[in-house]
Write a structure and sequence with these properties.
This protein has one domain (1-307). The protein is 35% helix and 13% strand. It has 13 helices and ten strands. Strands 1-2-7-4 form a four-stranded antiparallel β-sheet, with helices on both faces. Strands 3-10 form a two-stranded parallel ribbon. The protein starts with a helix and ends with a helix. The mean pLDDT is 93. It is found in: Cytoplasm.
Length: 307
C-alpha cells in the first residue's frame, strides 16, 4: 500500500473513532466554480449586515493563501440531530444550539486528530477551522464527496440528511482525494415552498439577509416590521428548510453527550420563555451558542414574536 493511501485510511479511521460522522479529503486549490457565486452573493448584498463576509475574498477561495504550503483539505461532519425535542407549545430554537457551543466541541476533536496525525505520520503543519474563519465549508465538504449542496444551500447527504456541523483541517500533507457525489434534489421544492420569509430566492440561491437565522442571530438592530408574523415562532435560528427536506428522514440522533440540552430548554412553554430572567438565561444557555444573541437579543426576538 502506498503512503498516501495508508495515511488517508489512518486519518479516516481516527476521525471515525473521534465521533465524526464522516470524513472526506480534497486537494487544497483555488475554488474556481465558487468564485462567481460568492461574488454574486456579495454584490447582491445577500449577506445583509454580515460585513465580515466581504473580508478576505481571496482567502475564502484559496486555502493555500490561508495556510501557506497546504496540500489537502480534510472535511469532517459531526452529527447534532437531537434525541429529544422542545415542547410543542414553545418558541423554537435551532437544533444545532440545543447543547454546548459546537465551536469548542469540534475544535477539541480537530486538535486531537491533528496531534494523532503528527504522532503517527510525522511532521505536519496545519490549521483547524470551525465556521470561524474565511473557509467555504460547504464547498469543501461537497468537493470531498460528503454530500451535495441542496436547493436550500445546505450540504445534503443521502445517508444522513443535513443536521450536522462541518469543519476542516487544512494541512501540508498530500493525501488521496475523494470525488464529489451527484445532486439528488431532483424536482423537489419542499424547502423553497416552506421557507416562511422566502429567503430561498431561486433553487440553490439563498438571500441570507431574509433568513430567520440572520434576523434572530446576526442582525443587531431592530427587527423589520415587514416580517412581523413570518417567523413561525423561531426565537433563535431556524430549521424549517431542513425539517421539510425528505433526506432528513434518515437523520439519526447524535452520540455526543455535550450536545444534550438543559432540561428546561425542552420543557419550557411560551409563557416560560416570555418570563425568562437573565439568571435563568445564563443557567440554560451556559456555554451555548445561544449566548451569541445575548439576553437582550433573545428578549428582542421574543417581543417580536409576541406582538
Amino acid at each position: 500500500m502506498n503512503n498516501k493511501r495508508h495515511n488517508t485510511e489512518l486519518i479516516k479511521a481516527e476521525a471515525k473513532r473521534l465521533g465524526f460522522l464522516s470524513c472526506g479529503i480534497s486537494k487544497a486549490e483555488f475554488l474556481e466554480e465558487e468564485a462567481p457565486r460568492l461574488e454574486e452573493f456579495l454584490n447582491k448584498n445577500r449577506h445583509g449586515e454580515m460585513q465580515w463576509m466581504e473580508n478576505h475574498f481571496d482567502k475564502r477561495l484559496d486555502p493555500t493563501k490561508l495556510v501557506p504550503g497546504s496540500k489537502s483539505v480534510i472535511s469532517l461532519l459531526l452529527n447534532y440531530y437531537p434525541h429529544e425535542f422542545q415542547n410543542k407549545e414553545s418558541y423554537k430554537i435551532s437544533k444545532y444550539a440545543y447543547g454546548r457551543d459546537y465551536h469548542f466541541v469540534i475544535k477539541d476533536k480537530l486538535k486531537r486528530l491533528l496531534t494523532f496525525m503528527q504522532d503517527e505520520i510525522g511532521e505536519i503543519e496545519g490549521r483547524a477551522f470551525v465556521d470561524s474563519a474565511p473557509v467555504l465549508d460547504k464547498a469543501w465538504a461537497a468537493r470531498s464527496g460528503l454530500g451535495w449542496i441542496g436547493k436550500n444551500s445546505n450540504l445534503l447527504s443521502k445517508q444522513t440528511g443535513s443536521f450536522f456541523f462541518i469543519a476542516e483541517l487544512i494541512v501540508d500533507l498530500e493525501l488521496e482525494y475523494d470525488t464529489p457525489v451527484t445532486d439528488h434534489c431532483g424536482s423537489c421544492t419542499a424547502c423553497i415552498d416552506a421557507c416562511p420569509t422566502d429567503a430561498i430566492v431561486e433553487p440553490y440561491k439563498v438571500d441570507g439577509s431574509k433568513c430567520i437565522s440572520y434576523f434572530t442571530i446576526e442582525l443587531k438592530d431592530e427587527l423589520p416590521a415587514s416580517y412581523q408574523g413570518k417567523f413561525d415562532d423561531w426565537m433563535f435560528g431556524c430549521d424549517v428548510c431542513q425539517d421539510v427536506c425528505p433526506w432528513n428522514r434518515f437523520s439519526k440522533p447524535h452520540n455526543e453527550p455535550l450536545f444534550n440540552p438543559h432540561p428546561q430548554l425542552l420543557e419550557n412553554d411560551k409563557k416560560d420563555w416570555e418570563e425568562i430572567t437573565r439568571e435563568t438565561f445564563n443557567e440554560i444557555f451556559k456555554k451555548s451558542a445561544v449566548k451569541r444573541t445575548k439576553f437582550e437579543g433573545l428578549r428582542r426576538n421574543l417581543e417580536f414574536l409576541k406582538d
